[in-house]
Amino acid sequence: MRRVYVARHPTEAHFLKGLLASQGIEAEIRAEALFSARGELPVTSDTCPSVWVLDDSQLEELEPQFTECWRCGTARQNNE
Predict the structure, then answer these.
(1) CA 57, CA 42: separation in Å to the nearest integer?
(2) Which residues pair with 41 in a beta bridge?
(3) Of 13, 18, 21, 74, most Cβ neighbours within 10 A?
(4) pLDDT tens-digit profile of 33-45?
(5) Contact residues for 21 (Cβ-Cβ < 8 A; gap 6+)
């Protein structure tokens, strides 16, 4: 199981989970309940809703030359 996305809002996480399900990829959302504690907890990748693919064999690996997001420029994390 691997985290594939950190969402800004639970709705965004559920949208992505639905997209994955439409392709036959099982996923789950974690830390969704922590969204209601915003303001009391720091906003980090551990406290935001995140989407996790259950079966690692369904992951697509990115080639090493892609080091940042083409859309927002965020640097790739070492574990992804």
Answers:
(1) 33
(2) 38
(3) 13
(4) 888 787 788 888 8
(5) 27
Please write down the HEC assignment for all residues of 9-78.
Answer: CHHHHHHHHHHHHHCCCCEEEECCHHHHHECCECCCCCCCCEEEECCHHHCCCCCCCCCECCCCCCECCC
**pLDDT tens per residue, range 12-69:** 999 999 999 999 999 999 999 888 787 788 888 888 999 999 999 988 766 777 787 7
CA distance to 7, 16, 25, per residue, from 19 (Å): 14, 5, 9
pTM of the model: 0.72
Contacting residues for 68 by C-beta, under 8 A, at least 6 apart: 74, 75, 76
Supply 56's token pair. Answer: 């690692």
- Both tokens assigned to 1: 């199981």
Residue bearing tokens 């030359």:
65
Cβ-contact 62, 22 below 8 angstroms: no
